[in-house]
């Protein structure tokens, strides 16, 4: 991890934390932290700064922390993703948090297998865990908002037009469309389909709601790869 | 898979193939192909076209094929990657093949764990298998060239300067460097470090060989994500 994330419960006083579990293990085994070492730390949904190891052993670590920096700005983006298969979902949640996406909407689509909605990886605790890993990777503290939309039509008809309003609305889709724009400056609403792509009805509905189809060339990328490629190109 | 890749051994006549194993299973279980169905096919390192199912059952599939299209152009790129951990290596090989990288050099670095070089995933058969999965995903037939460079210094001093010559030489590295350029047109040599980054000595050597450090912003991406992001931005 490139940033040690602190939860409210870790604080034993205003500037001191005690850590156990996964983060303690990481400090011991990967950082091989010893007394006096200084680390980058951040408070979940709060500021970032430095932490100094006061005491560390195999039961707990005690750090003195000073949080005086703002986390990096988020991308001006709402990302809509057809729910990916559970294993890929976990990596995408990490990537999305690491890259600075502030809001992720997981949407149903004709080509999303019904069983994907049953995965325990969609539980709030499970998504939070993956998002935290991504924030630790990307050095950010602010958890993205995750919105679950299990019905395509009411989302596309009733809520999407408002979301898209005054943003550049795009839907990534292979086909004879314009190339995805580069280095945009304003806010973007971007939708990315499932493996196999959106069906024509869905593309039509997304277009009606203000998203224009754009493509990334003739090569078809896996969804997690397409997410990264589109964000890197847009921002 | 978005393209059914055919090996020389699959051909029973000039325009007919018989398939078994993984691809047969995929045809049966994912495509649910039946007699008369037409699929995109390509010959490994050859042309692409259409295949029509003549016969399919749970023992084999017989297709009549017509190969009349060239595969998509590759990126004008030599990609140098500090050897990633085995699990990530597999995904990176797939991504690299899907995105059209023609040449991948896997290089040692101070922060590459020695054990990574022992992985069976580096064996030619194993890398070929992952590259084929990537080509099937990205709809390409031409296997990227994989070069193994297990010693950093002789590679950086003796072979890299020639490789970099008359290309835009870049090394992705977090720090106070220029932002990675966008939408370049000429050939590029791009080096991407291990988790934890190149050490200063390595950056110095890469610079001497003609690679200039560029960064992608203050967020630190996992290597596989950085590869995709840098390629999407550059091309």
TrEMBL record, chains A, B:
Q: Which domain of life is it from?
A: Bacteria
List localization entries.
Cytoplasm
Q: Which UniProt keywords apply?
A: Cytoplasm, Methyltransferase, rRNA processing, S-adenosyl-L-methionine, Transferase
Q: Does the keyword Ribosomal protein apply?
A: no
Q: Does the keyword Methyltransferase apply?
A: yes
Signal peptide start and end residues: none
NCBIfam families from the entry? PRK11713.5-4 (NF008700), RsmE family RNA methyltransferase (TIGR00046)
Name of the protein in its database record: Ribosomal RNA small subunit methyltransferase E
Look up and give the organism this protein is from.
Answer: Pseudomonas duriflava
**What lineage is on file?**
Bacteria, Pseudomonadati, Pseudomonadota, Gammaproteobacteria, Pseudomonadales
């Amino acid at each position: 991890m490139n940033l040690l994330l602190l939860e409210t419960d870790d604080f034993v006083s205003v500037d001191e934390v005690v850590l156990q579990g996964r983060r303690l293990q990481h400090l011991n085994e990967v950082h091989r932290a010893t007394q006096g070492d200084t680390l980058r730390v951040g408070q979940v949904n709060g500021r970032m700064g430095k932490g100094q190891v006061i005491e560390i052993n195999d039961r707990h670590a005690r750090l003195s922390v000073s949080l005086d920096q703002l986390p990096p700005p988020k991308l001006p983006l709402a990302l809509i993703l057809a729910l990916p298969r559970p294993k890929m979902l976990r990596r995408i949640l990490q990537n999305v948090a690491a890259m600075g996406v502030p809001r992720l909407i997981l949407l149903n689509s004709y080509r999303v297998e019904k069983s994907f909605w049953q995965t325990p990886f969609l539980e709030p605790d499970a998504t939070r865990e993956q998002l935290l890993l991504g924030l630790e990777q990307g050095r950010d503290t602010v958890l993205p908002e995750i919105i679950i939309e299990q019905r395509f039509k009411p989302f596309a008809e009733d809520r999407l037009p408002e979301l898209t309003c005054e943003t550049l609305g795009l839907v990534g889709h292979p086909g004879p469309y314009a190339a995805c724009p580069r280095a945009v400056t304003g806010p973007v609403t971007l939708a990315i389909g499932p493996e196999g792509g959106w069906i024509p009805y869905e593309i039509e509905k997304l277009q009606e709601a203000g998203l224009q189809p754009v493509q990334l060339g003739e090569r078809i990328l896996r969804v997690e790869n397409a997410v990264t490629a589109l964000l890197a190109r847009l921002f």
